[in-house]
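ok so heres the complex, two chains, lmk if somethin looks off
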Amino acid sequence: MISGRRLLRNLDYSLILVAMMIIALGLVTISSASTSTGTGQGVFLTRIVGKQLISVALGTVVLIIIMFLRYEDLSRYRRILYGLNIFLLLAVLVSGHEALGAQRWIQIGGFQFQPSEPAKLIMIITLADFLARREGNLARLRDLLPVFAYVSVPMLLILVQPDLGTTLVFFAITFGMLYVAGARPLLLGGLASGGLGGVLLWIWGHLQHGIWIPLKDYQISRLTIFLNPWADWAGAGYHMIQSQIAIGAGGLWGRGLYSGSQNQLNFLPEQHTDFIFSVLAEELGFVGVLILLTLYFILLYRGLRIASQARDLFGTLMATGIVSMLFFHILTNIGMTAGIMPVTGIPLPLFSYGGTSMLTTLAAVGILLNIWLQRQKIIF
Amino acid sequence: MDRKTADRNATDRKVINKKLNAFVAVMLLIFLILGTRVAYLQIFESERYRTLARENSLRLISIAAPRGEVYDRNGVKLVGNRPLYNVSLVKLGQSKEDLEPLVQRLSQILNRDPEAIWARIDDPSLRRYERIRIAKDVPLEIVSQIEENAVNLPGVSIELEPMREYPYDSTLAHVLGYIREIQPKQLEQYNDQGYRMGDQFGQDGLENTFEQYLRGEKGAVQFEVDAYDRPIRSLGVREPIPGNDLHLTIDYRVQAAAERALAAAVQAAQKTGKESRAASAVAIDVRNGEVLALASYPAYNPGMFAGDVRAAEAEEVLTSPDRPFINRAVQSSYPPGSSFKMITAIAALESGKITPEFTVHDPGYYWLERMYTCWTYPRGHGNVNVEKGIQVSCNTFFWTVGKMIGPELIAKYATDFGLGSKTGIELNWEASGVVPTAEYKRNVVQAELDRRYNPQFEALEKEYGPLIESAITDEEKGRLTREMQKERARIQAQYDRYAWELTWRDYDTLNMSIGQGYNAYTPLQLANYVATIANGGTLYRPHLVRQITSPSGEMVYEYQPEVLRRVSVSDENLAIVRKGMSLVTQHGGTGFGVFWDFPVPTAGKTGTAEVVGKDNNGIYVAFAPVENPEIAIAVIVENAGQGSATGAPVAKEMLKAYFDLDVQENDPRAGRVNQ
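and the predicted structre for the whole thing:
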């Protein structure tokens, strides 16, 4: 345990402040996204906002508990954590709650719990330990194979849900951590671009020549529609077009909170979860977008700074993994709403509505804070 | 202190920091790209998007695709589509007082209670700017009235929706099925196939089985509207793609004849005081398993789900005790009665235990521990061989033969001819029927025993348990216990007496040989079994759809006859059975009374199946012509009496239609030939 006084003195306050500001901006946007008055006026505390506030409160409790632990202990429980991860992901496959064609939730009491969210964090912890133990032994392709094997079990379980987006997040995390852990950048770059190229070729082959692919048609159309959403503007392209109209209509200053017609009239689909960024862009304009992007950049920058100051490689790698995860989420979500990336259904961290995602992200922030607290050598 | 907590050396840190700096650079680059993209949308393209979003003026409305149509084998259209007009209202943010005059006017035009209209408007699940359907399927006069009064009816619009149309009303209803708004459970099940609340979905029959072919693809139109929600400018239309058409094996003439004759048969039976309520008939092309007619009485009109107007009719049909929704030809199984005797004959001939010349003398009864009377008792059929046995339906002959070969052999051949198993026709909820076995009987009787005696035993416990518990003296306790045991022994004795029935007995074999007892088959199975006798031993899978074509006429699916198996019966023995069946319509046969004047030689078999506590079911199976058969038929008229009097006339009407023996003037085929 870490003493309270020392903790208060050494906290990374800029990280905490930035996280709080993102959450606050998120709550305001969710409030607007969950009203549909269209009058420019709205009540802040909608039912959805209330639920999100509960998630924030729970997440804060989790964050504080994590801060008080010694993160090195996590490496001792790596087997249990890895096993728990597999168990949760199997549970969702067996008894999962089906929504939008995929099984992603487990119903616990009145709550829907989405194991693929904490799975990412657990994977970061276990993989950081796995890689730290192989320090200096990651130069060759042969050395990377056990790493990929280690990651692939939870990743495949998520892929079959099917949750393509989260699977991609796993890739991003793995590559980010491997890069910092000492794998050769050229090798990693080759693997990443080779893999991406291969998948693109496979999809192209499927679309052109009907080659078999383990994806359903709707998944493929989601992946490719961003190239030309107007080709199927009333179907698969609908989300993208409405989202771009919302962003574009926002202009520099935005149309004002509770005043975006795309949002208020429900043209925007899933506007408080996956497409929350479009609501922000429509109602608070480019100014609002810049504020959010700046906040995110500070958050990630602080994360990397924590990685560089960590006491040991395990800490550095955990911080790197968390930053990779958050960064990839931000990139794919905003890229999707702005029409330059495929629709993957990945939430915007600390911003989108969603309890499991909020809890997981706050837990991740707690780990970052913990690593920062222990950056100096502790003398017993 | 272990290695991990030790301070890392300076070079390590330097390498890692270099990498982390590169990480920051990549992040910065990506953030710049995202920022630039958003800036492009929000600053340079903003005007364009603002126009699109201006004054909440974009509307996306889906256009329902016309479902595929259904034709009979000769191109007669059995299901089409017609335009259906719905009246909708979009609330434009008016207050209740503002809406009041509008609702008044609407209620006058639609001749509806204003309260009912208010109920739809106030539906709390609706969002602003969502279309509220006020009335479904309104007549054209009302459509023109609303259009004339458009100025006084802000927000009211007419929508066009293709709706199912059934030119021949209830004809073929059970095969066609019906469509109705998709149910929540179906929506959940098919959610990745683009269904939305309010879409039409095939609920039964072919509409259900071929839903994916029939549904087509929805179109959509997006347009700008003004402040009164009137469209100003279309931004794009995606035309709906109509569904694929089904071309059935059904022959409309035979089907219509069957339905008319079934109704007539039930009514005729009712006139003679029978309690007949239902009937069904099936006709199959024996050469390929194509179903020519499949009728069930009573029927319903599948069009009744179209509009609000006929909701009462739908309700009445749904709750009718005659259960018109049941397709009795495939969902109900019946004891086949004497129409089963060909199976017993085939089993006996194949076993080698009898020859075609084998003869039984029928004095009018059969003796096996007690007397079983043939249906002509006290007269007998005299000397009967297998052909004559079929011709005159002699029970004594088949009892004798059945006892000789035993139930297992009969069951084997019944199963071989497809009896007692689902045929796999393209309809849901097909019944499988029952080929009786000792095990099946044991289960049925055991269930009945449990049902009857378990409650009695339990009641006894319940009655005496507390009494014994609360008895004060030992003497009292003893007396009550003895009383209870005595009572239990009494019930046990009854139980044991009935439990004797658990075992397969000789009379079960006798019942089985003449198609009574636990035998239960669907009319479709019976028709298919007769078809197999007629075509020389090939069991086809019966089917209803010959072809599916796209709206542009391309072939999407073409059915090939599917042979389930060749039955293991010699050609000679099948020929003997066919001979026996052909004698049925000859002088002395049980079908002679109906078929004596029929110009095409036909073969048949009557059946009269006993129904406990009710009038007998009348059954008739047939095939024709006798040489080179084409069509096989099975008819069952429930609780109507003898098969020769009730089922045979239906079969005759169907054969008449099939052989074009009296083409009526209003027959669509007559019209078609003239074209």
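quick notes: Chain A has one domain: 4-373. thats all i got rn
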